[in-house]
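Box S1 | Example of a co-folding query
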Amino acid sequence: MLTGKVVLVAGGAGLLGKEFVQTILKNNGIALIGDRPSPNSEKFAYEMIETYGKNRVCFFPLDICSKDSLHEIIDKSEKNYGRISAVVNSAYPRNKNYGRVFEKVDFSDFNENISMHLGGYFLTAQIFSEYFKKKGGGNLVFISSIYGFLAPRFEVYEGCTFTMPVEYSVIKAGIIQLAKYMAKYYKGFNIRVNCLSPGGIFDGQNEKFLEKYNSLGLSKGMLDKSDLNGTLVYLLSDASAFLNGQNIVLDDGFSL
Ligand SMILES: NC(=O)c1ccc[n+]([C@@H]2O[C@H](COP(=O)([O-])OP(=O)(O)OC[C@H]3O[C@@H](n4cnc5c(N)ncnc54)[C@H](O)[C@@H]3O)[C@@H](O)[C@H]2O)c1
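Box S1 (continued) | Returned holo structure for nicotinamide-adenine-dinucleotide
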């Protein structure tokens, strides 16, 4: 379903990013992996290139808060592939103090995390929408979260060493609104901007947390990363040609 689509996955070497890259490749698209250089991202890129070849996949060092790295991806991809059709932003920047409970969040950490994550999604979207304008159109998919529109279910986190950080809720709400704003702002330019908001994704969480989380799901509870693939393909394909400014919630009904 993605033949002819050249898709940049920002945060493409993360838990969800890797899955998205492989889904794009399995559906005949070209995948550009954009992530911070690290042994993990380089190993993943190497494996993908080994499997699919250099014509179908490549790695770009990316910081979603750096204009230079974003422009470099556009310039190099134009030369190598002739275009970028879509961007999936699945990056998850956070600073070293991220994840504290509400009253322990320093003002400076709050601001820094908003800037790195929401600011980075804004910058990436701004640079790519201007590029898409020149190209006659394009497609932006932001990965938000159920916690971008839902009050945290703190009861699920009771007794856990982690919480649902306030910055996360604020950032993800901002991302959903950024998509709506941009979809409308670019009226007439053939630019689509949508969000995919997953619920929790299984990543080895402890049994107690899973039990509480799963009790709020309708048939499965915590989803596997592969459960997002069908919706991602839909968002990137022409099947969703007139879907614009929307937030697709994929959470097994957890948020109901
Ligand atoms: N995992 C979940 O349960 C879940 C649920 C809902 C939403 N989400 C959202 O999905 C997205 C991906 O989450 P994940 O679980 O894969 O996270 P992850 O931490 O596994 O991966 C995020 C990736 O982003 C990269 N990254 C961080 N800062 C960056 C920057 N400045 N520029 C470019 N890349 C950067 C990291 O190197 C990493 O590879 C996030 O936006 C997250 O909020 C995740």
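The longest helix spans residues 107-135. The mean pLDDT is 97.
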